Amino acid sequence: MLKKTLTLAVAATTLTIAAPALAQDSGATIGFIGGLTGPIESLAPPILAGAQLAVNQVNEQGGILGGELTMISADSACDATGGATAADKIINTDNAVAVVGGLCTGETIGAFNGSGLSGNVVFVSPASSAPALTTLEDNDLVYRTTPSDALQGVKMAELLLAKGVNDIAITYVNNDYGKGFADALSAAYTAGGGTVAANIAHEEGKADYRAELGNLVASQNLVILAYANASGNTVLRQAVESGNFTTYVGGDGMVGDDLLTGIDPAAVEGLIATRAGAPTGEAVDIYNAFTGEGFTANATYAPQAYDAAFLLALAIEKNGSASREGLSAALRDVASAPGEKILPGEWAKAKELIAAGTDIDYEGAGGALDFDEAGDVDGIIVELAVEGGSFVEKGVIQ
Asked: Which of 21, 49, 47 is nearest to 34 (CA)?
């Protein structure tokens, strides 16, 4: 697939351009870039904990390249400019060999375009789901362990139509994530026979979305594609106050208990949501039994973050040094068949096989991770619902 260049404006800040990292005598350093503050701040800590658990397991089972695996985190506030600033530190000051992140698609693109491309740094995002990442000009350096919203939009459309929801109004946060998701949902929903009565962007950070909601009343079924800690909560709260809607729907960015802050849970009982899920099987069962500080196995994007960190560790060990050169090829090798299966937590086994020159194939907490030419993976999307004031997973959307 020939990828097109995606232009992104970042802050007018001069960033230091680093040469590819030199190999360390032992051990390796990776970075974590994500919105620890801002619109997904309630979602980010469990994602970070998922990645940290993988790092801890590597060190508990003998370490990497004869030393320890270190992960340094940087907050990018779910923002492109924040992503560029975080990447400058992680890549050019901390000399990370690779990056888990970003989380929001805009911060991933900002971080990669800011320092990642020039530094020859592999990024594996556990949560950047916008279709825009597929077409990013990245020299085969940007990957993700979560499926694209091109899939989530289709699955949400199929779910709503199967439930007899035949018309919807959509409001989406005006960024790569929101627009990409809304476009995918609208196309699939219309193709399936549904009516999109309104499809309107909204800007992040406003205190009042009543004007936007007034333009969405052509349907009583409101789809909000935004973030739980930010406009998602405000739009949902003011929609409930308006009394104009009877059914509420949200995407993965809305799946967090903070979404219901200031809202009577009874008013949104049955709210429908979607997010990336995991298939059944031994790999998922093993992962779900893990425990760790701040770790919640089924938190949104925690499995995908665990996979991203574990995969990068495997790729670094396979590459044989803490150099950035050759890491992308090594990542593809350890993530794909052929090879002996490696399941979550099987670091010591993987090290022995790599040392013996045996091919390995990691099967992750989020499922198989066979990257396509664009660095994307297949996946499954699950349905959730608000029941008694909390999100409850209902199952895979077939």
From this structure: 47
Question: The tokens of 346 are what?
Answer: 């099987």
Long-range contacts of 285-288 (CB under 8 A, 24+ apart): 286/343, 286/344, 286/345, 287/344, 287/345, 287/364, 287/365, 288/365
pTM reported for the whole predicted model:
0.91
How far is 219 from 234, CA to CA, in rounded Å?
Answer: 19
Identify the CATH assignment for 149-278+380-396 out of 2.130.10.10, 3.40.50.2300, 3.10.560.10, 3.40.50.720.
3.40.50.2300
Which architecture does CATH list for 28-148+281-368? 3-Layer(aba) Sandwich (3.40)
Q: Are 259 and 230 in contact (CB under 8 A)?
A: no
Give per-residue pLDDT as tens, 38-87: 999 999 999 999 999 999 999 999 999 999 999 999 999 999 999 999 99
Could you identify the residue written with the tokens 């909204």? 202
Cα(89)–Cα(68) distance, integer angstroms: 21
Phi, psi for 298 (deg, rounded to 5): -100, 15
